[in-house]
Amino acid sequence: MKVSVQGRAAYAYTGGKPFAGDEPCVVFVHGALNDHSVWTLLARWHAHHGHRVLAVDLPGHGRSEGPPLASVEALADWVLALLDAVGVERAHLVGHSMGSLIALEAAARAPERASGLVLVGTAYPMKVSDALLATARDDPSRAIAMVNALSHSGLAAKPSYPGPGAWLRGGSSALMHRIQGDAQGNLFEHDFRVCDAYAGGIEAARRVTCPAHLIVGSRDVMTPAKATKELAGMLDAAVSRIVSGHALMQEAPDAVLNAMRQAIKA
Amino acid sequence: MPGPSDPSFDTLAVHAGAAPDPATGARATPLHLTTSFVFESSEHAASLFNMERAGHVYSRISNPTTAVFEERVAALEGGIGAIATASGQAALHLAIATIAGAGSHIVASAALYGGSHNLLAYTLARFGIETTFVKPRDIDGWRAAVRPNTRLLFGESLGNPGLDVLDIPRVSAIAHEAGLPLLVDATFTTPWLQQPFRLGADLLYHSATKFLSGHGTVVGGVLVDSGGFDWERSGRFPELTTPYAGFHDMVFTEESTVGAFLLRARREGLRDFGACMSPHTAWLILQGLETLPLRMERHVANARKVAHFLAAHPLVAHVGTPELESHPDHALARTLLPRGCGSVFSFDLRGSRAQGVAFIEALQLFSHLANVGDCRSLVIHPASTTHFRMDDAALAAAGIGPGTIRLSIGLEDPDDLIADLKAALKAAERAAA
After folding, report:
1. pLDDT given at position B354
2. With 50 as the cut, is the pLDDT of residue B392 above it?
3. Any chain B CB within 8 A of the CB of A159?
4. Are residues B241 and B361 in the same domain?
5. Sheet strands (E) in B80-181
6. For residues A184 and B136, what is the distance between their CA atoms, to the nearest angstrom?
7. Cross-chain Cβ contact A160/B71 below 8 Å
8. What's the pLDDT score for residue B396?
């Protein structure tokens, strides 16, 4: 559905059902150069199992009007403004990669509005190497190929996403190229710099009051599981470790769903 | 900077989409000959049917063995996914039926496999889908043929049987200017010779019966999506961008930003038309795919030798392969098909029809049959077989003469093939008397 947030048109996928009623709300926030479509299986499942769902396109990504916002803090404010716009007081905040930092910061900025926090494929700090930042700036297509190769842990992940017959590496690459091609400016470099610059993770974790759950991939080389230790401790978070690379929702959709069911039930 | 990248073509040909079986440890892809798959619970069943989970329900819609084949072809083509079909013709029909209906229009190359021509010219016309045929080299003709109700541009990477090289960069540019996708039949080239998506195509399909299988054992097809075409931006495809009553009002482009086409093709096309591939067929074609790079290299090398032999023979009037400078698309082929032009080509015998018959009947290694892309060398007379429904004018438009003979060069020793052709040409010469 389309909604105006901070004066600009924003899109959120609602899981195949109208966004209505008073069921608990789950907000899904995607990572760098992605959009809502990385969440559609999980979003549909939750929408049909007792939740209202908002899987957002962040500003400047996919169907949401730009420009892209400059920091994790600004994006967290945007998520909270989205909740205002749709009249939701409290929500479970779920984020992947860059989106996990946004969810974390939003839960810290308005602890009373976060009923739960689920961080998927997360790490703090989420530093990006100078070499990759330079490649993202100078040769975004090459950087997309590199990140895509690093984000997948093998050549077959069943039952595939969004369903059998999908070649995950191809799908992820095509999505990144689509989002980059539609964006104003070099969105890939922008998103990486947003991740790299975020310095408030530990302070944010101190302010979070809701239950937190981390879902990490044992084969993730983008945000390695070991890079979540301090964050998990600060959040007193439950941690689900599943066999996957960084593209967890694509490589292991059922395992992520099982972990999320535990997290949201908790 | 150099850095990580996806594995190369030869590696993908062996591994893409397949992993050791978690239940048994089997390293080769198991053959799952089962119609259906047990649900873990009623909730699990409902969530599979409602696309809240990925998984297999019924083998008409998907099957684990078939899915490995689909993922592997998509990987080799640089696509986002694929749907295996009962035949190449089923793949073409599935592509069209997913985005076109009564009142739609297609612009297609005139140089098509006869079966594809039949589907477009006669059968789909009966269902209200009209096709304008254009000469594949007539770039302005492609542009001029586009109408407000056009949904698709379509051609073969190498036209059958004259081997017209489809200028994919230029034709796809025309398609994209009009907000339309370009569909390519890539059967003759395979991804080893050309990856049409890298040149601008949006959708492609193969008769997997041919080189992908490579052994002349099974009939199958596969439809692949690049994920690159923006159906919403085009504004011409409500099938993908507005609620579909046949699947809970799903809007496919919202469900998958890049995979909307394949979602509808599987959820509607396989569900309703049902032209799926048998898992057994998928398993057999997977065996072929593993050696595709090795086989194609040999196919091309053999075909080159045979083409040069025929071109120098006094009883041969013309050899129609872009491998030779005499072909009008020779220069284009060097750009778009740098590894070669496959192993299917035609030639024209001098002399009478009786000499043509004598030639075909004298061949020993070449098999006279209606197929291409086998490991065995094959021969056929298009005017009396694959294209027999076309009148002389349509034949001429497709670059086929009454004396045209089509060869599909296999993996035998090329010297043996040349010896066989030499003897048959001798027989043809004697038949003149």
Report:
1. 81
2. yes
3. yes
4. no
5. 81-85, 105-109, 130-134, 150-156
6. 37
7. yes
8. 77
Given a cut of 90, is residue B377 above it in pLDDT?
yes
CA distance linking residue A140 with residue A132, whole number of Å: 10
B258 vs A154, A159, A175: nearest CB: A175
Backbone angles phi, psi at B388, to 5 degrees: -70, -20
Chain A nearest CA to B230, separation (Å): 8
pLDDT tops 80 at residue B402: no
At residue A110, what are phi and psi to the nearest 5 degrees?
-140, 70
Lowest mean pLDDT among A129-133, B355-359, B398-402: B398-402
Residue A167: CB atoms within 10 Å? 31
Expressed in angstroms, the distance from the first to the final Cα of chain A is 29
Beta-sheet pairing, B221-225 with B203-207:
antiparallel
**Could you tell me which of A112, A146, A153, A154 has the C-alpha nearest to residue A129?**
A146
Most B CBs within 10 Å, among A42, A167, A175, to test the B interface:
A167
Reading the block at residue B340, the tokens are 């070669």
C-alpha distances (whole Å) from A181 to each of A138, A141, B416 are 15, 10, 53
* Residue B327: domain span: 292-431
Query: What tens digit of pLDDT does each residue of A256-266 get?
Result: 999 999 999 74
pLDDT computed for residue B1 by the predictor: 47
**Is residue B8 situated within a structural domain?**
no
CATH number at residue B240: 3.40.640.10
* B35 within some domain: no
pLDDT at B345 over 90: yes
| B238, B366: one domain | no
Q: How far is CA A261 from CA A223, A242, A257, A264, B269, in A?
A: 22, 14, 6, 5, 33
User: Taking a C-beta distance cutoff of 8 angstroms, is the pair B377, B410 a contact?
Assistant: yes
Average confidence score pLDDT of chain B? 95
Q: Please, which pLDDT band fits residue A184 given cuts at 50, 70 and 90? A: confident
Does B322 lie in the same domain as B230? Answer: no
Residues B124 and B192 grouped into a single domain: yes
Q: What is the pLDDT of residue B398?
A: 67
Domain count, chain B: 2
Q: Tell which of B288, B309, B335 closes a domain.
A: B288
- CB within 8 Å: A165 and B47: no
Q: Examine the pLDDT at B220 and tell me if it is beyond 60.
A: yes
The per-residue pLDDT for range A71-97, each reduced to its tens digit, is: 999 999 999 999 999 999 999 999 999
Is there a domain that residue B243 lies in? yes
Which residue out of B52, B94, B241 would a mutagenesis test of the A interface target, given it has the greatest number of A Cβ atoms within 10 Å?
Answer: B52
A159·B68 Cβ contact <8 A: no
The answer to whether residue B47 sits within a structural domain is no
The whole-number pLDDT of residue B148 equals 98
Strand partners, A33: none
Residue B382, pLDDT score: 77
Report pLDDT for B400: 74
Say yes or no: ipTM exceeds 0.90. Answer: yes
| Contact list, B231 vs chain A (CB under 8 Å) | none
Known catalytic residue at B426: no
Domain CATH for B417: 3.90.1150.10
Same-domain pairing of B407 and B335 = yes
Domain boundary among B269, B288, B307: B288
Q: Which residues, other chains included, contact A265 with Cβ-Cβ below 8 Å and sequence gap of 6+?
A: none
- Do A167 and B16 make contact, defined as CB atoms within 8 angstroms? yes
Q: How many CA atoms lie within 13 A of B261 on its CB side?
A: 29
> Is A174's CB within 8 Å of B227's CB?
yes
